[in-house]
Amino acid sequence: MVAALIRGKPDAVLGLATGSSPMPLYEALGAENLDLGRVRGFSLDEYLGLGSTHKHSYAQVIRREVVDRLGLAPALIHTPDGEAADGALEAAGFEDRIRAAGGIDLQVLGIGSNGHLAFNEPPSAFTSRTRVVELADSTRADNARFFDSLEDVPTHAITQGLATIFEARHLLLIAHGHRKAEAVARAIEGPVTEQFPASMIQLHPNVTVILDEAAASKLQRA
Length: 222
Ligand SMILES: N[C@@H]1[C@@H](O)[C@H](O)[C@@H](COP(=O)(O)O)O[C@@H]1O
Hints:
Layout: H1 2-8, E1 13-16, H2 23-30, E2 40-43, E3 45-47, H3 58-70, E4 77-78, H4 87-100, E5 106-109, E6 131-134, H5 137-143, E7 156-159, H6 162-166, E8 171-175, H7 181-189, E9 207-211
Parallel strand pairs: 1-2, 1-5, 2-4, 5-8, 8-9
Antiparallel strand pairs: 3-7, 6-7
């Protein structure tokens, strides 16, 4: 789907997720023999306090795993600045850049074990825009595996809001493993509620969810 989008629109605008879930997608995209030099991209989120050169910043992850791996043009890929002096101003500027690009064609998403999308922790308003948020303890614990210790995981982040994500023309949610099964079932079959941000996808007109058997194992109507 991603390759087909880019073949039809070489300057497509992708929303880029970090985390482990989308990595196989990025690897597979690399095998497609596509010219990705005109593709534009916007990261979902960034840790607050980690600069773009910090090895655990999402800017660096996107740089390593997406830009360098796939030959994207660095100038066309935007990640919120985690070291911005004014987080609200940075968030507003990020929204402006998405709008100026004509919006996101396809937003790649993972799902947090607590039902977060990007860093929109429960509860998050469906009307929320890009903003500074505090991370849930469970999210910091989940992500500690990427850091040297739990203490090193930042406490805050800048994240695209749920309304920002919802405006993407196509949502592509990827999850694998038993660890995600409960969250996937609640997102797809549970009540649509701001208490469980990922349930918002039920309201979007164009969503694709890619799961392995383990992540799908708690769906009642599969
Ligand atoms: N902020 C990120 C999300 O954008 C990501 O989708 C999610 C799942 O991560 P993973 O794919 O590693 O399970 O949690 C992280 O905290």
